[in-house]
């Protein structure tokens, strides 16, 4: 089968993830091992590659037992109590928190210090959101959609924030709906444009090919959102996490295939998928 396969040049790791992985690789090369608090990126293939180099992924319970070691904080950031625990356990934190996330944490902390009622548009339990909540002693309200937000008794004036990877359109739509209800909304747009602009770019990319193969880890929330963006633009979009999931009967001879992925999808994995498709 002859296919014409193109990788989307705009897909792949966002700069925050590139920074964290580069930092991890430098230490692994030097020391041979490194602890990382939580998955460094929501992509099993990339995690496996780094584990083979000596990356040891731990959770918060294991962090409490750890002493006198270096631990990487991934791009999602962490709440203040993680830093306090590190001090108590004599842990060296290698902080690869994304600069966009750190800026957001500082702004939320500042709003909290001013006793503003804080509402965060984000995913419950997401690592970044837990770090943001920690800036408010877990007092801020997290909501995933308008319906959930309206279940709360809202004050007349609210301070609105968003997880950095949310859609800008959705964020401004929530602001507008609240204002239409007569509320005074102080909206802090801290959404990462490198991530939020991806959906517009992907829509354009998805229209240019007969078939789209979207490559992402199954745990990536960004991956789920961007896959739906592709599928709604081009119904002939297929989700795979590795080359093993590719099925030859998805494709016909001489078709054009576009490969794209989430902000947590490594370029090497998209290249592997391209190479596998060229061998069909």
What does the main sheet amount to? 4 strands, parallel
Number of β-strand runs? 12
Tally of helical segments: 12
User: If you average the pLDDT, what whole number results?
Assistant: 95
Overall outline = flat
Q: What amount of the residues lies in strands?
A: 15-25%
User: Secondary-structure element order, as H and E?
Assistant: EHEHEHEHEHEHEHEHEHHEHEEH
Spatial separation of the terminal alpha carbons: 6 Å
Specify the structural class: alpha/beta
- Write out the strand line-up for the largest beta sheet, numbering strands in chain order: 1-12-10-11
Low-pLDDT parts are none
Radius of gyration: 21 Å
| Quaternary structure state of the chains depicted | single chain
């Amino acid at each position: 089968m002859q296919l014409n396969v193109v990788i989307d040049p705009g897909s792949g790791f966002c700069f925050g993830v590139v920074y964290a992985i580069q930092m991890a690789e430098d230490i692994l090369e030097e020391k041979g091992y490194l602890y990382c608090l939580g998955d460094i990126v929501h992509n099993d293939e990339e995690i496996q590659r780094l584990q083979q180099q000596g990356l040891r992924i731990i959770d918060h319970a294991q962090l409490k037992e750890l002493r006198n070691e270096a631990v990487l904080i991934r791009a999602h950031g962490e709440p203040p109590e993680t830093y306090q625990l590190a001090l108590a356990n004599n842990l060296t934190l290698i902080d690869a928190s994304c600069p966009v996330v750190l800026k957001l944490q500082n702004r939320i902390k500042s709003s909290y210090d001013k006793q503003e009622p804080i509402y965060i548009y984000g995913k419950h339990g997401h690592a970044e959101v837990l770090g943001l909540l920690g800036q408010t002693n877990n007092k801020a309200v997290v909501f995933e959609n308008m319906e959930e937000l309206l279940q709360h008794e809202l004050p007349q004036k609210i301070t609105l924030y968003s997880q950095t990877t949310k859609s800008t359109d959705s964020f401004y739509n929530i602001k507008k709906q609240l204002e239409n209800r007569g509320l005074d909304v102080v909206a802090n747009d801290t959404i990462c444009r490198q991530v939020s602009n991806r959906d517009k770019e992907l829509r354009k990319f998805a229209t240019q090919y007969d078939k789209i193969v979207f490559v992402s880890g199954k745990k990536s929330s960004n991956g789920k959102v961007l896959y739906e963006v592709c599928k709604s633009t081009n119904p002939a979009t297929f989700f795979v996490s590795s080359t093993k999931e590719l099925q030859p009967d998805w494709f016909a001879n001489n078709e054009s295939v576009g490969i794209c992925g989430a902000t947590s999808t490594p370029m090497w994995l998209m290249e592997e998928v391209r190479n596998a498709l060229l061998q069909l």
